[in-house]
Design a protein that fits this description.
The protein is an alpha+beta fold. It has one domain: q2cbj1_9rhob like domain (Jelly Rolls, Sandwich), CATH 2.60.120. The protein is built from six helices and 13 strands. The longest helix has 22 residues. The structure holds 2-oxoglutaric acid.
Length: 274
C-alpha cells in the first residue's frame, strides 16, 4: 500500500471543494486487488464475530464481556469495547456495523496508517500528527442492508470529545455503490451550521437524527462511485443512505481521525497514526 506523500496530498482545489461542500469524493483511490483484500477481511470479521458470540475468544484475553441490548427494537451486542449492530427486522442475524473494526482485523488496523487516507486528513483537520477516533465497518448486505437516516456525526460524539469539529471521516468503498445498493448520500453545504436540532419523536435514538426542518433534503448528492473510491466528509455534514434491496452488497469502512494527543472513542487508548 506504499504511496509517495506528495502524490496523495489534496490539491488546493480539492481542499476548497471540501470546505465548500462538506465532502470530497476521490474515485478509485484503491485498486481492485486492494478492494478484494478488504472484502475478504470483511468476511473474516463476520467469522470472528460469530465465533465470539459462540463463546470463543477474540484476539483479546481474557474472553470479552458480552452484553446484548436493543435500541428502537434493533439488536446490539458489545464484545468488550467493540459494538456490533445487527440488521433490522427479520434479518437480525446479519451484521450491520462493527466498531471499532481495526481491533478485530489486522488488515483494517494496517489501513489506518495508509498515506492515501492520512495525508489528506492531516490537511483537512489540520494537524501534523494524527490519532484514530473510530473505525466502523458497514456491511450493507445485499437484499437486507438497512439504510441510515439523515444525521450528523458530531452530535454523537459531543459527550466524548471537546473537539468534534476536528473529527473528519473517510469512507472507503469495497464494492461499486449506486442508488440501488444504498450508496452514501450527503446534504451539500450542511456542515456550515454546526450541530443542528435532532428529531423529537418517540424513538430512543430520535435525537441523533437531524430534524427534517433543519436542512434541505433537495440539496442531497448521491455518491454513486466505483469500488476503491473514498469519500472524505466533515463531522457536521448531514448524511445517510438508503437500504440495499439489490443483489449486490455495499461494504465500506468509515475511519475517523483526530489530532494526536487524544484517546480513541471506544478503546480509550491513544492509537497514534504512523
Ligand atoms: O454506511 C452508510 O451508508 C452510512 C453510514 C453512516 O452514516 C454512519 O456510520 O454514520
Amino acid at each position: 500500500m506504499a504511496a509517495n506523500v506528495s502524490d496523495v496530498r489534496l490539491s488546493e482545489r480539492e481542499l476548497a471543494r471540501y470546505r465548500e461542500q462538506g465532502f470530497l469524493l476521490k474515485k478509485a483511490l484503491f485498486s481492485e486487488g486492494e478492494c478484494e483484500a478488504f472484502r475478504l477481511a470483511a468476511q473474516r470479521v463476520e467469522t470472528k464475530v460469530a465465533a465470539a458470540l459462540n463463546g470463543e475468544h477474540l484476539a483479546s484475553e481474557p474472553a470479552p464481556v458480552v452484553q446484548e441490548y436493543r435500541l428502537d427494537g434493533n439488536r446490539f451486542v458489545d464484545l468488550a469495547h467493540i459494538t456490533v449492530q445487527f440488521e433490522h427486522g427479520d434479518a437480525e442475524q446479519r451484521l450491520r456495523v462493527v466498531e471499532p473494526v481495526n481491533d478485530l482485523e489486522p488488515l483494517f488496523e494496517q489501513l489506518l496508517d495508509e498515506p492515501r487516507l492520512c495525508q489528506p486528513m492531516k490537511q483537512l483537520i489540520p494537524a501534523d500528527q494524527l490519532a484514530l477516533w473510530t473505525a466502523k465497518l458497514n456491511f450493507k448486505h445485499s437484499q437486507v442492508g438497512s439504510g441510515f437516516g439523515w444525521h450528523q456525526d458530531a452530535p454523537y460524539w459531543v459527550h466524548d470529545s471537546d473537539h468534534v469539529e476536528k473529527l473528519p471521516n473517510v469512507m472507503v468503498l469495497f464494492d461499486d455503490a449506486s442508488a440501488e445498493n444504498g450508496c452514501f448520500r450527503v446534504i451539500e453545504g450542511s456542515h456550515r451550521n454546526g450541530c443542528l436540532p435532532g428529531c423529537d419523536d418517540q424513538r430512543q435514538l430520535a435525537g441523533f437524527y437531524t430534524h427534517p426542518q433543519a436542512f434541505d433534503e433537495g440539496a442531497q448528492v448521491l455518491l454513486d462511485a466505483p469500488a476503491g473510491s473514498a469519500v472524505f466528509f466533515d463531522p457536521h455534514v448531514v448524511h445517510g443512505s438508503g437500504p440495499n434491496h439489490s443483489a449486490l452488497p455495499r461494504r465500506a469502512i468509515i475511519i475517523t481521525y483526530q489530532p494526536a494527543g487524544f484517546v480513541a472513542l471506544k478503546s480509550k487508548v491513544e492509537r497514534l497514526i504512523d
